[in-house]
Amino acid sequence: DYDEAWVALADARVELADWKGAEQAVRRALDLNPRAAVAHHVLAVIEELTGRARAAARSYARAARLDPVAFFEPVRISPKAFDVALRQAIDELPADLRQALAGVRIITRRFPSPTEAPPGLYNPLLLGLFEGTPLPERSLEDPLGAVGARIWLFQGNLERACPTREDLIDEIGVTLLHEIGHYLGYDEEAVWKRGLR
């Protein structure tokens, strides 16, 4: 279907942060099929990531009405509640992982920023990101690595991934654990195999 092809193109352009191209593509899909829930959802993502929160809320709601099985309105919590959930996730880590995190700075942002992302790692849809030298690759001469280790968590993207507050609290912990896996030197495949999702 042509509308699905336009949505796929819009999705690809979102990942490249080509907001104009993404919106043109998704609006073309909606011209072809105004009831395409996925197109309304992609439009909501574009609107949210370009600072149009009210329009995004309307588009998320429209997608959820058109296909309540596949789409939902994202849960929202305050930055303070997010920090409390993150602290709880850290406290619930096994002692060895909490100890490994001692030299890691954890940073929260609403969304990824192209100016803060390491070269080649910017993706506006990231839930989290590890930045720095993985623990096994550090040398005795440079124990902190060339760049101090940092784990980024992106609240807005995590909220968008979760239909309920309970799911969001769980996903904060899952994403933190995933990024800790990268800090410990595991690639994506090994992170999943070791249950660090």
The radius of gyration over CA amounts to 19 Å
β-strand percent reads 5-15%
User: On the 0-100 scale, what is the average pLDDT?
Assistant: 89
Output the strand order for the largest sheet.
1-3-2
Give the % helix: 40-55%
The computed structural class is mainly alpha
Q: Topology as H/E string?
A: HHHHHHEEEHHH
N-end to C-end Cα span: 34 Å
Instruction: Tally the beta strands.
Output: 3
- Tally of helical segments: 9
Broad shape: globular
Task: Please give the largest β-sheet.
Answer: 3 strands, mixed
Low-pLDDT ranges: none
Written description of the protein model:
- The chain has 197 residues and is mainly α.
- It contains nine helices and three strands; from the N terminus they run H-H-H-H-H-H-E-E-E-H-H-H.
- Strands 1-3-2 form a three-stranded mixed sheet.
- Helix 1 runs antiparallel to helix 2 and helix 2 runs antiparallel to helix 3.
- The longest helix has 19 residues.
- The radius of gyration is 19 Å and the shape is globular.
- The two termini are 34 Å apart.
- The model has no long low-confidence stretch (mean pLDDT 89).
